[in-house]
Every structure is written in C-alpha cells, then in structure tokens.
Amino acid sequence: MTSKNRFFVFAGTSVIGILAFSCGSSSSSSPANPEDPLQQAPVPNPDASASDSSTAPPAPQIEPDGFDGSSVDVVTVIKTQEDRKTISPLIYGMNTTRGTHDADLAPADVLAGVTFIRRGGDRGNSYNWETNMSNSSVEGGFVNDMYLSEKLDNPSAPGELDRALIANGRAAGRGTMIPFVMNDYVAATLGGNIPYTNPNWINGNTIDQYFHQVQLVKPTAFSATPDLNDGVVYTDEHIDFLRRQFPTVPTDIFTPGPSQVMVGTDNEPDLFAYNYPMLQRGGGANIYDPGGSGAVVGHLVTGTEFTDKFVTFAKHVKQMAPSAPIVGPDHYAYDGWTTWWETMPQYTDDGRWYMDDFLATVRTESESIGTRLLDTWDFHWYPQRKFSGTFTWSLDNATRTMTADEIDAVVQGPRSYWDTEYDEHSWITDDHLGGPAYILTRLMDRIATDYPGTNIGVTEYFPGGCAHISSGLATADTLGVFSRMGVHMAAMWRHECDLTYADGGFRLLRNADGQGLAFAGTSVSVEHPEKAESSVYAASDVPGFTTVLVINKTNATRRFGLRVYDSVPLTDVDIYRIASGSPSPVHVAHDAFTKLNAYAYEAPAMSAALVVLKTH
C-alpha cells in the first residue's frame, strides 16, 4: 500500500489531488448452473429497492410481542418476508499485492470466510507478466524490480504471480480477480536511475531500454511461451497463457462460480499520469517530470482514449472467453469517475460525469454485438476527512491515540455510502458535492440510467481506525451496508497496520464461531430509527433462522428490542460479539425467548454482535 498525495502537472493545467492512497460477477451472458452456489439465486440487481420474486404466497407472519418504554432504549422491527434480496457472496473479498500462500493473505480464521482475492496495487499497472517484473511507481522512486514475485518458488516463470494466486484460490474454493494491464508500458529491465527526463525518452527510443510496450491484442497466434525479446507484451496473450496453466478445469477458469477468475482492467487507470507519468503515450496534454525539472516525460491518456481501450479489450475478452466476468474501470476516487482528474472540462459535479459517457459507450458497443462488455462497474472508497493532515482511513491508534472526533469519524464513515443526512466534511463533500456523499446511491442511480443491469463493486475499501475497536465496528457496518444495498462485489484493502479489530469485524459476518457460522444470505427488511447511535441489519434464508447484526456506536450500554415477524415461533438466541477487549468474536450468550418473537439484547459500549435467532 502506498500513500498518494496527488500532484501532477500537464501542459497549462495543474491537477492537485488531496486524497490519499490505494495500492490499489458473473457474466450475464453465461448460463446458470444449478450446482454452483454463486448462481443458485439471481445476481442482485444494482437497484437496491428490487426484491426477490416468489411464486408461493408468504406464510402468515406472527405478530411479535412489544416492549415497554423502560425495558429497552430502541426498538427494531425485522420482517423476514419483506424486502428480501439475495446477498452476493462476492462482497466478502480481500486485496493482496502479491500474496500467493494463505499465510500471506490474511489470518486463517478470516480467510475461511473470504470468497475472492483481488490482486491490487499500483504496481499492477507496470506488471510484466512475461517476467513478473514491475515498477515501484512514483511512491517508490520508479525502480524496476521483482518485488511482486520475490516470494514465489519460481519467480521468473512467465505468469507465475497470477498462476500461483489462481491455483491457491482454486484449492481453497475462492475466486481471483486479476488486473490485466491496459497501461502503455510495463517494466523490462531491473534497476533504478531511469533517465526519463532525457529528451530521447519522448523523442527517441530510450524508453525501450527500460520498459516494453503493451498491446492489448496480439496480431498473430498466441505462443505457449512468450517471446521475451520482441519488446512487446500482449495483454490478451496473458489471458490465454493463464488458461493454458489449468488444462484439467472442466470448463474454463473464467466461468462464473466459487473459483472463478474475474477479469479486471488495470488498477485505477484515472491515475496513470500520477503513478507512471513517463509511461503514458496518450493523445492528451504533456505530462511533466514530477521531480520539477520541467522535462516532458509523457502524454496524458485521456478518459475518451481509455474508454476506447476498454471497449477494444472487452470485446476481445468476450471472444476468447464469453462467460468471463469483466470488472472495470476500477476508479480510484471521486475525481476519477467524474472528470478524469479535472482533465475533461465537459464534465461537472452537478452535470454529466465521465462515468456516464463511459457506460453509455460500453452499452452501445455491447448492444451492437449482442454481448455485455461490462459485468460490474467498480470503484474504490476511503473516508477522506482529515485530522491534522491525516486521512480518516489512515488513522492508527497504535501510532497515536485517537481522539473522540477521530473515532467518531471512523464509526460514522459507512454512512457516506447511503445516508443523505451524513456529511463526512471531506474535500469530496465540501468542495464538490456541497453536502453528504451517499455515494453508492448516486452511483447506482447513474448506472441504472446509463447501463441498466450492470452490477456495482467496491473493489477497495478501508474505514480507518487501525488497532482500535472502531475499525471492527466500521468494517462490520460496511459489510452490512453492502448486503442491504445489493453491492455485487467488494474487497477490503489490507492496510499495513494492526488489523486485528478490522479482521474481527469481517469474521463476525463470515466465521463468527470459528466453524463457519455466517450472516445469512438473504437480506430482509429492518425498520430501525437510529443512524448515528447504532446500525442494525438482518438476513434470513429460511423460517425460524434469522441473523441480526447489531452495532452500538456509542460509549454507553444500549438495550435493543428486536421484534421479528416470522412464520414460526423463535425459541433460542446465540450471541457472538466483538468489543474493545475482544477483537475476535466471542460467544457471549445462549439464551431463550421469554417473549413471543421478541428479544431484548443489551449491547456493551462500542461493540458489534451477530445475534442468531432460531427455533428448535
């Protein structure tokens, strides 16, 4: 993970970013497989208001008992037969830059609940699959090295980084998302001190001594072994090469299912000019030396050019592997999907965005050939409010004790996905939107207009609050939001800090008891009157079994009255909880109902619990 204080200069234009870092579906054209757990239910529609259809009338629902005003602080009503939406298993993903073994990815009890691994990171844009070499980008001084592959058993074998990651995922029943390169050049020779300010970098062939050109489509037949001396790296040959490494797969490694390989399109292409200014050969403005020499080192790849690249690549992918799920464009942040980092003046905050034209173009091209060229539109999201120069996502209690305001920013951060009343007071909300972000709602609305049926993905997120219970609460809350709103895929960015609490929040929904107990797979109606003080989410697959995620975001004990409309009487309760003294879920109670389908749960301060309500 790298820190990005955005600053790069084009001819006559200064683009200053004030955010901070990153690294970094199933295809609608593929037939359903009734034996595939990822296809047993319809893929959630991005329209969060859509509900599952059923031909059978719902069973009569039992009216639950009530609570008197003195016994609870807040009453939540759960209706198990209303607003039912399948929760996509792919919201439970994780990111890695180079992990190839389970021990490199996440703790075992966390990894047990992970459904896919995304290979992310800035280096992905310079990754040469033929040699596994990459460049360290602006944050690492532009050094070509073997960082991504140094842990591999055979680090120089073609495609070994991705082959090992896919093989490891298949063995564990997990999917993999690979960011196939659409950047103009990738690393070719080891070493630093690259003379990109030399005039011959632009006007001559100096670049070819350090980097190889990328072409999306190979004009000749694929080779079983890539040519290391032709000076060109072909992206489609990378795809073909990986398919050849798994000849025993019955169908195809890209076929949707638990172990599917998803086709990503680079990492944060809107930041090509920041991360790799000397590698850009677009038709846009000059890019100047980030070191301040004044030398022209590249030419901007415009948003329009990227759209054209994407369409060319996606068409070829669908010819090669018609069922391959394509995920893109993998935007870094707000300025990327709105104005391509303020380089496309035709787009404005309150008007048309770059994403609108991107989606409209992809839709037109898809309809012209009768094949969907984009399955999931994805973006990255990190809370952007700053405290003494530190972004919320980067707050680390182990480095400096967090203040009450900082803790509150972390636990309230997930509200920026949906809440029209919550303003995180960041550069996005203050300078661009002029108020609350409710970013998922905004993006889903535009997708529904520009290219209906396209899924949405949050392929990087992290709430902040390392080494503090706030990160656990915010992680659990984020996953609750994704489940309720119909997000199709999501992957946590594993920030380089103490993730014990964040992992605890993830495990609470995926492996609360250490034996696979998870939040149920069908989101149901929750009527909960609070937002700042608490969050409640519920899921129920069958009558008599409902999982309720209860998050107390206050510094005081709170009593939740849970009233559950179900078709059968509920009898038993099990509670698993994380709190400041227990970062991993602990089984804290086994209880019996004393009221008809109504249970009072007492939540300690700053805690999150999976409350499992069931019948014998």
Describe the protein's architecture and organization.
With 616 residues, the protein is α/β, with parallel strands linked by helices. 22% of the residues lie in helices and 25% in strands. The strands form 10 sheets. Strands 7-8-11-15-18-19-22-23 form an 8-stranded parallel β-barrel, surrounded by 4 helices. A 5-stranded antiparallel sheet has the order 26-27-32-29-30. A 4-stranded mixed sheet has the order 25-5-28-31, with no helix packed on it. A hairpin with a 2-residue loop joins strand 2 (7-10) and strand 3 (13-16). The radius of gyration is 24 Å and the shape is globular.
| Widest beta sheet: strand line-up | 7-8-11-15-18-19-22-23
What is the 3D form?
globular
Low-confidence stretches: 5-53
- In angstroms, what is the radius of gyration? 24 Å
Number of strands: 32
What is the first-to-last residue Cα distance? Answer: 47 Å
The proportion of residues forming helix, as a percent range, comes to 10-25%
Strand content: 15-25%
Total helical segments: 14
Mean pLDDT: 91
The biggest sheet, with number of strands, parallel, antiparallel or mixed sense and barrel status, is: 8 strands, parallel, barrel
Classify the secondary structure makeup into a structural class: alpha/beta
Write the layout of secondary structure elements.
Elements: E1 2-3, E2 7-10, E3 13-16, E4 21-22, E5 74-79, E6 85-86, E7 93-96, H1 102-105, H2 108-111, E8 116-119, E9 134-135, E10 144-145, H3 160-172, E11 175-180, E12 185-187, H4 199-203, E13 211-215, E14 232-234, H5 235-244, E15 261-265, H6 272-275, E16 286-288, E17 296-299, H7 303-320, E18 326-331, H8 334-339, H9 354-369, E19 376-381, E20 386-387, E21 390-391, H10 404-412, H11 427-433, H12 439-450, E22 455-461, H13 469-485, E23 489-492, H14 500-510, E24 522-523, E25 525-527, E26 534-542, E27 545-552, E28 558-565, E29 572-579, E30 582-592, E31 598-603, E32 607-614
Parallel strand pairs: 5-28, 7-8, 7-23, 8-11, 11-15, 13-14, 15-18, 18-19, 19-22, 22-23
Antiparallel strand pairs: 1-4, 2-3, 5-25, 6-24, 9-10, 12-13, 16-17, 20-21, 26-27, 27-32, 28-31, 29-30, 29-32
